Amino acid sequence: MDKTYCTACNNVITEDQTRWAFDEPYCDNCFDEGYLYCHRCDELVCRGDAYFDDDGNAYCSECWDEDFDDNSPNNPAVYNADREQIIELSRNWLLGKQCKKITIKINERDTHLIKLRDKVGLVEQPIYVFGLQDREEYQISASSNLMDFVKEYFLLNGLDWKVVEGVGCNRLGISLSLRQNNFSEIFNLIKHVSQLHLQEAAT
């Protein structure tokens, strides 16, 4: 049987001791030193990237709602979905039209979510999609305004995934195992939620 080694300290770790962060295995100590969960949305956050309130609670950048990040790179990567949006904006500007389509929002440190965003492309009603660790209580977290659309998709496709109501608005959290193993179902779920949410917003 292949051994699993902690990404940080390189010690051998058993399956029940393994903690996962962005698809990398860690022992308990190294995981706790490097990562934590957002106090508001439960998203996994690198400790160095977290924002802390006066009570010591940690938040991801989306929940903290920072308008400007001093640590932003000067030459960030441009992914397929970003390139598609740039082209769409440029074409509409040349035609004198207003572009209403944009990409879904994601945590760009998660490679699975980047692939999902590129596949989904531009949508007229964007949502924020973030990663969740695998937990027994739930596999999907949906804000209250998306909950009915998520449940409808489950019913139409015979899925028995566990969903819990999350905080905020237009937010969809997806567990690690679903991001890794159920790409097409998650892709279709995002498209389903985006389209139906747009129809509701228009009425």
Q: What do you see in this structure?
A:
There is one protein chain. The protein has helices at residues 28-34, 61-64, 80-95, 111-120, 144-157, 176-181, 183-202, and strands at residues 4-5, 12-13, 19-21, 24-26, 35-37, 44-46, 51-52, 58-59, 102-103, 105-106, 122-123, 128-132, 140-143, 163-166, 171-175. The strands form six sheets. The chain has a five-stranded mixed beta sheet. A two-stranded antiparallel ribbon has the order 1-2. It folds into two domains: 4-64, Cysteine Rich Protein (Ribbon); 100-202, no CATH class. A hairpin with a 2-residue loop joins strand 3 and strand 4 (24-26). The model is unreliable at 66-70 (pLDDT under 50). Helices cover 38% and strands 22% of the residues. It has 203 residues and is α/β, with parallel strands linked by helices. The protein contains seven helices and 15 strands.
SSE layout and pairing:
Layout: E1 4-5, E2 12-13, E3 19-21, E4 24-26, H1 28-34, E5 35-37, E6 44-46, E7 51-52, E8 58-59, H2 61-64, H3 80-95, E9 102-103, E10 105-106, H4 111-120, E11 122-123, E12 128-132, E13 140-143, H5 144-157, E14 163-166, E15 171-175, H6 176-181, H7 183-202
Parallel strand pairs: 10-12, 12-15, 13-14
Antiparallel strand pairs: 1-2, 3-4, 5-6, 7-8, 9-11, 13-15
Short description:
This protein has helices at 28-34, 61-64, 80-95, 111-120, 144-157, 176-181, 183-202; strands at 4-5, 12-13, 19-21, 24-26, 35-37, 44-46, 51-52, 58-59, 102-103, 105-106, 122-123, 128-132, 140-143, 163-166, 171-175. It is of the alpha/beta class and 203 residues long.
